């Protein structure tokens, strides 16, 4: 098991300090290892996640080689040659478990942002104090975008949030964590080969959730009430002016409708008359959302690109990527003999990228891997 | 997908095309063309017959000619609708086509789909009367009235999805690079 840094490296180094897990503590479990502290309904801080994973590494006696960065993988004879910062390894089978979030995605139009505006990504963002005084444009309204927008607004800064496709979710529904419903109703166990549009399911933005001790919801209505100004999707930057889509109303409508369908699924699964179904107010559409914002005027001092993440396969010298740079795999079985993947969106189930989701996926993938090795022996 | 639903949209052909074009992006490159000719005053006629797509020249079944002019309140002869009204034609017809296609794909039988489109326009912009007023619409409102075998939520979802996949909605709500040259 090769780890470029320390155990739980990305949790230590690639997350902003105030982040907490989106999943409640009781749900953060690994095979034979679960949260046993006093706050089962709370959400782990980054330090706690790091400790949790470190402890699992010890308990499971995982053979981790830390400080070993993979620099190149290529196919040889009946397996792979792995070049690392600590020398070469040869193997017959290989599992890529480097995740889907190695690099922040920044759209090409970022190149047109005037120099006077500082640009940050979730990797370079630490806390509000790091930013110049003045306005912030947060681009993207998934979990990262709404969390950073709220934190920056609380620091007193004027914040504008550019909203494209979004997944609205209440933190709790009918008194329980919304993720309890995702697990209990079976949605998160839905298999990749049962999902209608798998390609789309794998590209969904992360839900607008935040883990706080108060278990508060953080959707656009909450942000608007805090004084954050929503604008449409950032469509272009022309002569130093950011141009936003005029389709904000529909983006809100789509998210509201989708949320209503999700809650209906929960209610139908619960199939009880006792608890009245809860419904949430529609996302408030600003009377007239701004369509443009002059970035040279000084109103916006910082842009934060909360526009998603992508994996980095720069080290992978095997032709298994599609034209968009995504790994070609069928439920984690990569399109090259003996190569496997884990921890990618909807890899085998909707829960694949969550901590508790790895157990079932790992079992399936390692079964296939074991058969592959058996076949090679015969 | 329900096979008993008949909205007259060949959704299977569209879904098949989507699969084919995923692997052949060059065939998906279309060029839509119109040719316009000045008549007199602010009256012009625009003709549309040919376009390019699926790797070759294509032709509509017949040529269409559109008159554009301005009404009497603009001191014109009103030989046709104003150019900006053509945007309303485009938006309404695009969203309606989307509603029908999405309904077919979702197995929803439509009985009637009607819409009204209103574009609010401050003409001080085009007259140069106030430099703070833009030339185009300030906002556009589309109102659908749909009779279908579906719940109110499902109908709202149809309309939302049709906007999400609409060429004209996108062209109106997002900036587009436009080059105008003299040949």
Automatic annotation (TrEMBL), chain B:
Pfam families named among the record's database cross-references: OsmC
Transmembrane segments: none
PANTHER family listed in its UniProt record: HYDROPEROXIDE REDUCTASE
Name of the molecule in the record: Putative OsmC-like protein
